[in-house]
Every structure is written in structure tokens, then in C-alpha cells.
């Protein structure tokens, strides 16, 4: 079996070929990865839908490989390897048309409930309202065995993973490069948190393969392929999130959308998807109903407003609809600067409000 893993790993280290190429040859040789690895051009030149030039490149690159070195490089970086023929390869992922040939994993995929996976995708330049809507929905799934899947990019992806962690949910991050790279760099700490107890990070790319632009659409099929359904939080008409939505439908999974402000360009794609039949999601319960999942109701922490002062209640009324910065809250409440600062700090300590986008306050 170890030798087989080495063959899979060696093949996946060749940047010029992809999973589809590997699995096409794997099928051609009756599911014998050793024969795939040791094949010559005469064995494979007549395979349909693969150009001769690609086959020649494969043979040339394969001949340059040092299998032991390639395999040891992965193990020395504490990366787990899961191949297409492994018994614990995710069944949902194996069912998609273009499954990844190899999965490289950090963290613990075994702690994630692969029977209750839901993907969250959306804009990298997500609005505050979009992020808050997403946080609300994920919070309503808190303390359950549901696993949140996303792509560890900026915006909606980052909010999804962080919200999962904050609400005691496992999360899987699917990245578009090898583990030698962290993209975006700002998520370095988030990578560590997921790896160290909050779920797993997975990729189909060998460690030294860079996060090239065309890898991201390819990565999306793994995000949706791992999941029973996909929730689109914000999406322009032409965006990676729309690609994920289309993949969800192609994979015969449930497509769901969170509505947003009609003045936001990142919701144009959302409303198009909704008009075409996507399920409207405004709560965690909507996801459970769409996927026909039953979970034990988590105990919700109730916030105590009984001991709030008049000024504190005025502040809460001011930010009830949308987040506001200090100046706008003061303009609406007419509270002096010193007292407003004190009240905002007190409300934060009580857990009733929190800061978003650095300078705005919103209800917890």
C-alpha cells in the first residue's frame, strides 16, 4: 500500500497533469496505479480525449521523478496523504465527475462529520451586512455536529471558518495550492487554528505547487463536492461563487442563497440564482429543512437587557438595524462623548454588542 501511495504522490507532483488525467489512466489500466506510473507512450497513446503532447510531457516528467524523495518530502512536513483508492476517501467527493486523485491534509479530517457537511461561498470583498448575515446563520447551528466547508479565501470564506470556530463547529478549508504557501497571508493564524483542533485543511496540490489563478475554480469543485449543500452568501453575476453554484447543481446537491441589499452588486448573482430556483436561506433552520437534517436544539445564551441603563438602550436602538460608527451613534443618541465611550465599553463587556470593520458597532 505504501508503494501505491508513492505512485499517487509522484503523479500528483507533476504540475503539467491534473487529477482528471491521472484518473483517466487509472481507469484505463483497470484501477492499477502501479501500471499507470510505469506505463510508456505505446501503452497510452491511443487514449481518447488526451492530447499526444500531454502524454509525452507526462512520460518525460515522470522519468525525472525520485519517488522516495517526493514521498518523504510530504511526510517530513506532517502532511497526511489520502488517495482515490483509500478506504477512507470521502464518499461524497468520490461521487463527483472530476474527483481529486490525491488529497493532502493537515489537521484531523476524522473529527469532521462528513455526513453533515455544508459549504459557504461568496465574495472576497464581502459587505459588512453580508458577513453579519452569515455569522447569524452559522451561530444558529452552534454546538452541533454540522461541519462548515469553505475555501479559506478572504471575505465570506474567512468569515465562514471563523464563525464555525466561534460557535464550536468543525470546519474544512479547501485551498488552491500546496501547503508550502498560505493564501492569503492574512489567514496564517486561521490556518493554524483549523489545523490545531478545529477541523482540517485539504488540497489536491503537492506541497510546492503555487496558488495559481486557474487553481481556484478547480478548487471550488472540491468545496461543493464535499458538501451536501452549498450556501452562497454574496455573489456578483460573474464570480467564483457563481461557478460554485453551477458546480453544486451539476453535482446534484442542494443550492441555497442568503439574500442581501438590492443596491449591492454582490447580490446580483444571488437574486438570479433565487429566481432560478435556489432555496432562500435567512436562518440556520432553513438549511436544516433544505437538507432534511435533524439536530438537537443547542442551548441559546440569552442576553440580559434588564439592567441596561437608558443610555445603553438608546445605543442598542441606534444599532438595531445596521452597524454604525461612534459618530453616527452619537448623532442619533445625543449622548456626550465621555458617557458614550463608557457605555459602549460596558455593553461590549456584557457581550451585548461587538465591533465590526474596526470602527463600527453591532448587536451580538
What's the layout of helices and strands?
Blueprint: H1 2-12, H2 19-28, H3 33-38, H4 41-44, H5 52-62, H6 67-75, E1 80-83, H7 91-94, E2 102-107, E3 117-121, H8 128-139, E4 147-150, H9 156-166, E5 170-174, H10 188-198, E6 199-203, H11 215-225, E7 229-232, H12 240-250, E8 254-257, H13 268-275, E9 279-280, H14 284-291, H15 310-318, E10 324-325, H16 326-333, H17 337-349, E11 353-356, E12 360-363
Parallel strand pairs: 3-4, 3-7, 4-5, 5-6, 7-8, 8-9
Antiparallel strand pairs: 1-2, 2-6, 10-12, 11-12
Helix pairs in contact: 1-6, 8-9, 9-10, 11-12
In words, what does this structure look like?
With 364 residues, the chain is an alpha/beta fold. The chain folds into three domains: 75 residues, no CATH class; 183 residues, Rossmann fold, CATH 3.40.50.450; 54 residues, Winged helix-like DNA-binding domain superfamily/Winged helix DNA-binding domain (Arc Repressor Mutant, subunit A, Orthogonal Bundle), CATH 1.10.10.10. It is built from 17 helices and twelve strands. The strands form two sheets. The chain has a nine-stranded mixed sheet, with helices on both faces. A hairpin with a 3-residue loop joins strand 11 and strand 12. Helix 11 packs across helix 12.
Amino acid at each position: 500500500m505504501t508503494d501505491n501511495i508513492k505512485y499517487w504522490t509522484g503523479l500528483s507532483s507533476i504540475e503539467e497533469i491534473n487529477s482528471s488525467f491521472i484518473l483517466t489512466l487509472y481507469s484505463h489500466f483497470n484501477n492499477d496505479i502501479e501500471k499507470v506510473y510505469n506505463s510508456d507512450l505505446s501503452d497510452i497513446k491511443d487514449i481518447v480525449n488526451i492530447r499526444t503532447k500531454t502524454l509525452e510531457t507526462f512520460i518525460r516528467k515522470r522519468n525525472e521523478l525520485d519517488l522516495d524523495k517526493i514521498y518523504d518530502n510530504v511526510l517530513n512536513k506532517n502532511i497526511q496523504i489520502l488517495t482515490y483508492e483509500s478506504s477512507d476517501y470521502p464518499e461524497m467527493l468520490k461521487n463527483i465527475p472530476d474527483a481529486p486523485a490525491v488529497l493532502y491534509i493537515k489537521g484531523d479530517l476524522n473529527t469532521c462529520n462528513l455526513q453533515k457537511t455544508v459549504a459557504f461561498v461568496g465574495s472576497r470583498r464581502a459587505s459588512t451586512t453580508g458577513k453579519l448575515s452569515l455569522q447569524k446563520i452559522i451561530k444558529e447551528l452552534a454546538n452541533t455536529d454540522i461541519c462548515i466547508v469553505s475555501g479559506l479565501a478572504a471575505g465570506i470564506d474567512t468569515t465562514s471558518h471563523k464563525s464555525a470556530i466561534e460557535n464550536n463547529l468543525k470546519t474544512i478549508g479547501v485551498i488552491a495550492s500546496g501547503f508550502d504557501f498560505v493564501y492569503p497571508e492574512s489567514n496564517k493564524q486561521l490556518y493554524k487554528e483549523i489545523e490545531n483542533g478545529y477541523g482540517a485543511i485539504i488540497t489536491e496540490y503537492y506541497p510546492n505547487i503555487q496558488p495559481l489563478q486557474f487553481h481556484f475554480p478547480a478548487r471550488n469543485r472540491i468545496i461543493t463536492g464535499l458538501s451536501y449543500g452549498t450556501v452562497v452568501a454574496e455573489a456578483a453575476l460573474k464570480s467564483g461563487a457563481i461557478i460554485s453554484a453551477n458546480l453544486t447543481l451539476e453535482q446534484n446537491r442542494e443550492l441555497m442563497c442568503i439574500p442581501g441589499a438590492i443596491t449591492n452588486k454582490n447580490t446580483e448573482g444571488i437574486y438570479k440564482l433565487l429566481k432560478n430556483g435556489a432555496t432562500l436561506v435567512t436562518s440556520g433552520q432553513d438549511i436544516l429543512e433544505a437538507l432534511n437534517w435533524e439536530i438537537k436544539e443547542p442551548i441559546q445564551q440569552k442576553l440580559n437587557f434588564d439592567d441596561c441603563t437608558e443610555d445603553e438602550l438608546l445605543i442598542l436602538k441606534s444599532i438595531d438595524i445596521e452597524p454604525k460608527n461612534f459618530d453616527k451613534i452619537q448623532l442619533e443618541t445625543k449622548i456626550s462623548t465621555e458617557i458614550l465611550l463608557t457605555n459602549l465599553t460596558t455593553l461590549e463587556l456584557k457581550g451585548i454588542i461587538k465591533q465590526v470593520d474596526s470602527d463600527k458597532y453591532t448587536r451580538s
